[in-house]
Amino acid sequence: xxxxxxxxxxxxxxxxxxxxxxxxxxxxxxxxxxxxxxxxxxxxxxxxxxxxxxxxxxxxxxxxxxxxxxxxxxxxxxxxxxxxxxxxxxxxxxxxxxxxxxxxxxxxxxxxxxxxxxxxxxxxxxxxxxxxxxxxxxxxxxxxxxxxxxxxxxxxxxxxxxxxxxxxxx
Length: 170
Prior knowledge:
Layout: E1 13-15, E2 22-27, H1 34-39, E3 49-53, E4 57-60, E5 68-71, H2 78-100, E6 104-110, H3 112-123, E7 130-134, E8 153-156
Parallel strand pairs: 2-3, 2-6, 6-7, 7-8
Antiparallel strand pairs: 1-3, 4-5
Helix pairs in contact: 2-3
């Protein structure tokens, strides 16, 4: 019989240490690490500070050694991971608001991180000024109609994306 219990866990994130009032929280894709994902945002320092939380599940990308990546969830115990992600991301957000007092917060999710971003935005929409989902399919278990009106919601897809299926992807 499967059972569960909760215990503390230490989570990791990377942040650009620049003084900007606009904070972009960027959730990486499957198999990425926050420190490398953050590098993709170099050049934005003059307009925003970017923070990249790291998916809590780290693993070897090939076999049992070598490069490490992280993920937000898998199909195994998926609902528990989704809830745990929301709890720790909300705790991180509270800490960020205390430490940095951002005037504007953009939530960006890339690939697998977009599903986590969409769920976080749905659960706590008042915290964010806009949501950007990049190279991702909108999570089918979420009703986009539950998102607040009047806040920007952006979808970014590339025609060369291996998962892009034309209009069916939107």
